[in-house]
Design goal:
- The chain has helices at about 10-15, 50-60, 110-120, 135-145, 205-220, 245-250, 280-295; strands at about 25-30, 40-45, 65-70, 75-80, 85-90, 95-100, 105, 125, 145, 150, 155-160, 170, 190-195, 200, 225-230, 255-260, 260-265, 270-275, 305-310.
- By secondary structure, it is of the alpha+beta class.
- It folds into 3 domains: about 5-90, Uridine Diphospho-n-acetylenolpyruvylglucosamine Reductase, domain 2, CATH 3.30.43.10; about 95-220, Uridine Diphospho-n-acetylenolpyruvylglucosamine Reductase, domain 3 (2-Layer Sandwich), CATH 3.30.465; about 225-310, UDP-N-acetylenolpyruvoylglucosamine reductase, C-terminal domain (Uridine Diphospho-n-acetylenolpyruvylglucosamine Reductase, domain 1, Alpha-Beta Complex), CATH 3.90.78.10.
- The strands form 6 sheets. Strands 6-7-13-11-12 form a 5-stranded antiparallel sheet. It has a 4-stranded mixed sheet with strand order 1-2-5-3, with no helix packed on it. It has a 4-stranded antiparallel sheet with strand order 15-18-17-16, with helices on one face.
- Strand 17 (about 260-265) and strand 18 form a beta hairpin.
- Helix 1 runs antiparallel to helix 2 (about 50-60) and helix 3 packs antiparallel against helix 5.
- Bound molecules: flavin-adenine dinucleotide.
Length: about 325
């Protein structure tokens, strides 16, 4: 199959998968894997065995085909029509954690909370903020995840990435050009491993700080709901001194509903799926919020949640 000229889209994808060791599935449902529990299928889902397997597949995949990595899907709305092209999910081959004297080297599929717990057990402070963020390390690097005054930019030494054309590179912190809830990861690149710094401290003190962070979150966020985290980025301070949730609250939108999509009563920068919301309901509610906030305060909110894929019924 790999020697066939890649003339059709399907041939191109099959060419890329020929020789891959990981799992490939066509029309793979994604909705159940997302925190919001919405969204259509991946046209192709690839779960590489390890970084070399991923690099090989990307080096064979024609540059015109869309490809995207997904992590724990805690910051995405996957639209109801699903994702065209190839979706990459890293799992077992990307879940190693190596503890070093002043940091941890962690695979991209490790959950942030697991990394925080390993750091605590090893007596390494500084990574407690990860305990309350429900994503994976890959998503955390991509989004520069942060909380309680710390973020990935403040603890990352380097990240290993596979570029869209299949090259493996190690990038230092500066090369990743982190900003507020974003990174300058090269277009189409996927994070496979990262080194995060920690400072030696008492494991009991670190465990206490983690418990405090978790308790504070339970009080202030709908952490047990079907949600996607902060919907909108906080505005730049020169645009507004108010946070996104305050602007939404002041525009009278707390609890606003569209079908089964609702603005959380607990934290109004969170949207929640009450049970049967579609991606379209959630996205339309978010757009409604943006309009109401602009009318009320003149501030334009920008989505933090990544909205990916095609709306239902639009052609591939
Ligand atoms: C209840 C709740 C609370 C939250 N609290 C916080 C918080 O306090 N602070 C905060 O920053 N965020 C928070 N979030 C949002 C979310 O957890 C973070 O943005 C997280 O870093 C996303 O990681 P993920 O693995 O789920 O990424 P996904 O949601 O799967 O993907 C997010 C983006 O990262 C990209 N991506 C994922 N994996 C990779 C990879 N390996 N390589 C390259 N790109 C990749 C995706 O393509 C997508 O663009 C919260 C979310 C929820 C549901």
């Amino acid at each position: 199959m790999s020697s066939l000229p890649a003339t059709t889209l399907e041939d191109m994808v099959r060419h890329a998968f020929a020789g891959a060791r990981g799992r490939v599935s066509a029309q793979a449902p994604l909705g159940a894997r997302t925190w919001f529990r919405v969204g259509g299928p991946a046209e192709w889902l690839f779960q590489p065995s390890d970084a070399e397997d991923l690099a090989g597949m990307l080096s064979r995949l024609s540059p015109e085909l869309p490809v995207i990595a997904l992590g724990a899907c805690s910051n995405v709305i996957i639209r109801d029509g699903g994702l065209d092209g190839v979706v990459v999910r890293m799992a077992r081959g990307f879940a190693d954690i190596a503890v070093e004297a002043d940091g941890l080297v962690v695979g991209s599929a490790c959950l942030d909370a697991t990394v925080a717990e390993h750091a605590a057990q090893a007596g390494l402070a500084g990574l407690e903020f990860l305990a309350g963020i429900p994503g994976s390390i890959g998503g955390a690097v991509r989004m520069n995840a942060g909380a309680y005054g710390a973020d990935i930019a403040s603890v990352l030494d380097w990240a290993e990435i596979v570029t869209r054309d299949g090259n493996m590179l190690r990038l230092g912190n500066a090369a990743l050009r982190f900003g507020y809830r974003r990174s300058g990861l090269p277009e189409g690149a996927m994070v496979v491993r990262a080194r995060l710094r920690g400072t030696p401290a008492s494991p009991a003190d670190i465990a206490r700080r983690i418990a405090d962070i978790r308790a504070a979150r339970e009080l202030s966020q709908p952490v047990r709901a079907r949600t996607g985290g902060s919907t909108f980025r906080n505005p730049d301070p020169e645009v507004s001194a108010r946070k996104a949730w305050e602007l939404i609250d002041q525009a009278g939108c707390r609890g606003l509903r569209r079908g089964d999509a609702q603005v959380s009563e607990k934290h109004c920068n969170f949207l929640i799926n009450l049970g049967h919301a579609t991606a379209q309901d959630l996205e339309a509610l978010g757009e409604d919020l943006r309009q109401r906030v602009t009318q009320h305060s003149g501030v334009s909110l920008h989505w933090e949640i990544k909205r990916l894929g095609r709306t239902q019924g639009t052609p591939a």
